[in-house]
């Protein structure tokens, strides 16, 4: 687990929104799939906040927290908020290899290490074929393009506003250099047709999701009893860029879940993920934006755009109901 993954959600508002979207999806699926009978498997971090919320919202009682780092595992045992959570000191992969699910599962592959992305994608895809029908699988992947490496500046040419450096014909741009590294890292998983335009901070995440979807769909060709329904895709950055994808493993002839998911207001797929880029707001700014149809008329200033480049007013309007509100409580 990276240091960033142990940060509290109040320091990662976009991840907090991402989590609320996932919980909202589960609550929509709960009546149709009887999710309260499922087993929940995840990593949890030192505070197991995801487990607490899954139990509170859905009533799941069979929950397994898997952690490879010994000290984090000990903190989980100390901080465990619910007696029914089983904390296991193993890697998620080892646990899944040695466990036979007796009921459908909700499994969150919450990866943060970028260098193992190929193995992570392959593992997620293989699990789609091994879990019981009705299972819900979710994966988080590190989508920071700088994780592909940092070339020597002398190895690169430069393009700025249509102007090119004199060595453009013999040297790659940073995006072209990253594309070559991405292809090396993914190997046979590399999506055909992917170009250097997909290697920027804003586009690298969707490129990863494109590869993920391709691998999952190839894996599904080996199974006749099941199909996948993509339900939620997100791309966000709280310092570190991340992407997520969530799917439901359905019986091949079952179309009911697909209809249920597609009618959900936050339905999205790896092809067109939600870009979660919510602005940092004061309480007065938030209340003004919530209570006015066009808050720009009431706010005599522009809100800054982040590296994702989204319009803060539009993003807030889309997700205002799950915008996180954090306050200090002194005990």
Question: Can you walk through the features of this model?
Answer:
The chain is α/β, with parallel strands linked by helices and 331 residues long. It has three domains: 4-144 and 201-276, 3-Layer(aba) Sandwich (Rossmann fold); 150-190, no CATH class; 283-322, no CATH class. It contains ten helices and ten strands. The strands form two sheets. It has an eight-stranded mixed sheet with strand order 3-2-1-4-5-9-8-10, sandwiched between helices. α5 (117-128) links the parallel β4 (105-110) and β5 (136-142). α1 (13-33) packs parallel to α2 and α5 packs parallel to α7. It is globular.
Mean pLDDT: 92
Number of domains: 3
Order of neighbouring strands in the sheet with most strands: 3-2-1-4-5-9-8-10
Low-pLDDT regions? none
- The first-to-last residue Cα distance is 29 Å
CATH topology of the largest domain: Rossmann fold
Give the class-level CATH name of the largest domain.
Alpha Beta
Helix count? Answer: 10
Query: How are helices and strands ordered from N to C?
Result: HEHEHEHEHEEEHHEEHEHH
What share of residues are in beta strands?
A: 15-25%
């Amino acid at each position: 687990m990276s240091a960033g993954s142990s940060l509290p959600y109040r320091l990662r508002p976009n991840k907090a929104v991402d989590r609320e979207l996932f919980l909202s999806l589960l609550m929509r699926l709960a009546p149709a799939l009887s999710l309260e009978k499922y087993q929940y498997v995840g990593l949890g971090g030192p505070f197991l906040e995801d487990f607490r919320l899954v139990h509170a919202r859905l009533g799941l009682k069979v929950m397994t927290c898997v952690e490879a780092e010994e000290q984090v595992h000990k903190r989980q045992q100390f901080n465990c908020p619910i007696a029914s959570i089983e904390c296991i000191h193993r890697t998620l992969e080892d646990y899944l290899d040695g466990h036979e699910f007796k009921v459908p599962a909700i499994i969150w592959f919450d990866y943060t290490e970028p260098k193992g992305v190929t193995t992570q994608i392959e593992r997620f895809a293989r699990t789609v074929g091994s879990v019981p029908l009705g299972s819900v699988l979710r994966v988080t992947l590190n989508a920071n393009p700088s994780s592909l490496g940092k070339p020597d500046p002398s190895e690169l040419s430069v393009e700025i506003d249509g102007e090119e450096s004199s060595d453009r014909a013999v040297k790659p741009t940073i995006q072209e250099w990253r594309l070559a590294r991405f292809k090396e890292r993914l190997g046979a998983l590399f999506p055909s047709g992917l170009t250097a335009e997909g290697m920027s901070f804003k586009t690298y995440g969707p490129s990863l999701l494109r590869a993920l979807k391709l691998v999952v769909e190839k894996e599904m060709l080996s199974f006749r009893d099941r199909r996948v329904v993509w339900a939620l895709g997100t791309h966000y950055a709280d310092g570190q860029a991340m992407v997520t994808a969530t799917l439901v493993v359905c019986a091949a002839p079952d179309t009911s879940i697909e209809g249920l998911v597609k009618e959900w207001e936050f339905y999205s797929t790896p092809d067109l993920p939600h870009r979660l880029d919510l602005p940092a707001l004061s309480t007065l700014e938030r209340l003004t934006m919530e209570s006015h149809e066009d808050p720009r008329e009431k706010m005599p200033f522009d809100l800054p755009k982040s590296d994702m480049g989204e319009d803060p007013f539009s993003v807030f309007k889309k997700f205002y109901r799950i915008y996180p509100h954090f306050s200090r409580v002194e005990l």
